[in-house]
Amino acid sequence: MAAFAVGLLFALVYEALRIVRILLPFKAVTFVCDIVFFLLAAGAVTRLSLVLGNYIRGYTVIGFGAGVFTYITTLGRVINRLENAVADAVRSVLAAFFRAIGKVLRKWIGAIAHKLSLLFGRIHKISENTLKKLRKPLQNKPQLVYNKRNRNIDNGRSESRNVIYAKVKRGNNA
To answer: Which domain holds residue 82?
Structure first.
């Protein structure tokens, strides 16, 4: 009977973990809660067995399991329905709250995105114009490039001998 009573009390640990599972409906949370429950249950059965004697007896394990099972099938069902109703109400209130916040955020983010699109449009136009200037085709006929300026040095001599002549032709790779 002691194991049965401890099993009934330990079912409250199961309820606490089940509330966590209801509030956070993810598979990973369910997995972790189940593992935690079974480890705690094993520890509780071991501790109970050591209190009742120096070794684990089968009736201690069965009594503990029967206590947990009795709780889950009786009072646990009523509490389960109550928890699910509360969780659904909380979820619907939170969903309405986040929808309202989402509408406001969408307007703000939309306005910011519109302003940024104008800015990025200007930047794109500037870069496109720059690329067009860089891609201007070369002139087809060769042009002579030379220095037309004649500079007179202080001693009166002309620097015409330093003029650079060059022909610019379109290459095969252009």
So the answer is: 2-111
